[in-house]
Amino acid sequence: MKRAVIPHLIGLFPLGMMSFFFLAPLAFMVVVSFYERDPLGFYNVAFVWDNYAKFFSSFYYTVSLRSLWSASLGAVVVVLLAFPAMYIIVDMSRRWQLFWVILLLSLMCLSEVIIGFAWLILFSESSGIPKFLGWIGLWEDPDSLSPSFGAMLTGFVTLGFSLVALMFFPQMAQRDRSIEEAALTLGTPPARVFSKVVLPNFLPAIISSVVTMFVYFLGVFVMPTMLGRPQDWNMTVIITDKAVGDANMPLGAALSVIMLAFTLIIICGLLLGSRRGRVQT
Question: How far is Cα 254 from Cα 260, in angstroms, rounded to an integer?
């Protein structure tokens, strides 16, 4: 009897930590989202819907759609780059596999601020890629490449590439290569083997990676502020500006709740769609 109780007691610890560090702040955020802003402080205790009503103005609605678009595009681009790259790496020799895995792990050690500053220097007109292209004669009048949407997207890809690649590595390294080898033996082109055999087998992993990166990029703050223009900023930057810069905690909390709801709806839709696809196949 005591042995059956011990696992349940052990499971109470992570449940308590999750409640303390996630559920409690989330509940507090939802409560604050209904409060009124106090110009002399953070908020006044009340129950109003004004903070949620402001979301449906053209500004916040546009920023939300832009956030969803940039996060979706960044997630898809990262997976499109990381999946074939890891497919090539796992077929290399053991020494080269270790080299690339160590390199990817090293990239994960770099903070978002360091990566942002690195790209800021590389995209600058005076000391980066534009100056080099002008020096070799490929750009007559070089100009800075940042801030821009492309620079921000490059920062997104740099942040997520190593994470996605390492997510694919264990599954791709242990995959059954017999079907691929049989298809190649029968004369099927490698590109067709990749698209008809490899991709369908890893479709659930690809979808989960896209969803993971989508959620991750929705919360990225440094890349949009450092590499993006004001018209490229996502909702995370706007929420920070309203909650911290304008000291409007209720509005920031309401915008956070709405973005969280949007994220959950999109994730549930993607997971439901992928589950139906697996059932049909």
Answer: 10
What backbone torsions phi and psi does residue 37 show, to the nearest 5 degrees? -75, 140
HEC profile of the chain: CHHHHHHHHHHHHHHHHHHHHHHHHHHHHHHHCCCEECCCCCEECCCCCHHHHHHHCHHHHHHHHHHHHHHHHHHHHHHHHHHHHHHHHCCCCHHHHHHHHHHHHHHHHCCHHHHHHHHHHHCCCCCCHHHHHHHCCCCCCCCCCCCCHHHHHHHHHHHHHHHHHHHHHHHHHCCCCHHHHHHHHCCCCHHHHHHHHHHHHCHHHHHHHHHHHHHHHHCCCHHHHHHCCHHHCCHHHHHHHHHHHCCCHHHHHHHHHHHHHHHHHHHHHHHHHHHHHHHHC
Q: Is the pTM of this model over 0.85?
A: no
- pLDDT digits over 124-156, tens only? 888 788 888 888 888 888 888 888 999 999 999
Half-sphere exposure of 25 (CA within 13 A, CB side): 6
Residue 196 sits at φ, ψ, to 5 deg, of -100, -20
In the chain, what are the domain boundaries? 54-280
Name residue 36's beta-bridge partners.
44
| Cis peptide preceding 147, ω within 30 of 0 | yes
Q: CATH homologous superfamily for 54-280?
A: MetI-like (1.10.3720.10)
